[in-house]
Amino acid sequence: MANRTPIIGGNWKMHTDLESGMRIASEVIDYVDSISSEDAPAGADVVLYPPFPYLQAIESITGPSHVQCGAQDLWIEEEGAFTGEVSASMLKDVGASMVLTGHSERRHIVGESDELVGQKTKRALDSGLAVTLCVGETINERNAGNTLDVVCNQLSKGLDGISADAMANVVIAYEPVWAIGTGHTASPEDAQEVHVAIRAHVESVHGSDVSNNICIQYGGSVKPENAKDLFACPDIDGALVGGASLTADSFNAIIEASL
Ligand code: 13P
User: Which of 35, 145, 153, 175 has the greatest CB tally within 10 Å of its CB?
Assistant: First the structure.
């Protein structure tokens, strides 16, 4: 059994302004650096995903710390007439090391297809960014008994053409759509069941070395109060946090619960 380092992500979505974002980031950095030493990071990998306009400023303070800075999205081309879009090389240029693909708000509000998510994942990895691929079912899909089919289909298309070697730079986030921003967290048992299925899917494609090492985060109304029970599940390797990442107190408490 691999010894996976949990990864705790703070997805700020379209929240914060420059001042509040810098304040949250510096309080997270203070906490994470206080529990790290120079050559031994905290025991959890911590990534903040600010809105695009604040990425460079946030990265200027995360850069020298044990906290990483990531982006919430990217476009599939490197350059060109794509008004409003941002490329992988632009993200790297301002210091992002990681990017989310397939977040449910992009799938369900913006209308991104599984195929587009796969293209974004491939482009990011080819450009040297690590990727957190988000997957998850809607409440109707869950009630119809289709959760595992939906999630495995999103994985197949989201990871299409990705080599076993490149999988070293992939994290999966299981985020049931019905649990995001609703206060309804999946029970640890329900989340663990899907995480096991995700790991089995990765094993069927890439073998057990890759599946044992890949981190699978849970996301959906994670709070300090429920984090410990989720992290106690053997296949839950951290969390992708929305609302509770908007104050350093609650986000740092979730980091602490993962240690
Ligand atoms: P909440 O933690 O606000 O439910 O959001 C989860 C999420 O979507 C993280 O990407």
Answer: 175
pLDDT digits (tens, 9 = 90+) for 195-236: 999 999 999 999 999 999 999 999 999 999 999 999 999 999
Q: Report yes or no on 217 lying in a domain.
A: yes
- Gap from CA of 44 to ligand 1 centroid (Å): 19
Q: At 159, which CATH number?
A: 3.20.20.70
- Distance from residue 158's CA to the centre of ligand 1 (Å): 20
Q: Is residue 1 part of a domain?
A: no
- pLDDT 10s digits, 115-125: 999 999 999 99
Which residue among 73, 177, 217, 221 is best mutated to probe the pocket of ligand 1, counting the most ligand atoms within 8 A of its Cβ?
A: 221
What is the residue range of 151's domain?
7-258
- CA of 176: how far to CAs of 14, 142, 185, in Å? 20, 9, 9
- pLDDT of 1 reads 47
Is 2 domain-assigned? no
pLDDT digits 0-9 by tens, 139-196: 999 999 999 999 999 999 999 999 999 999 999 999 999 999 888 888 999 999 999 9
215: left (phi over 0), alpha (psi -120 to 50) or beta: beta
Count structural domains, the chain.
1
- Whether 26 maps to a domain, the answer reads yes
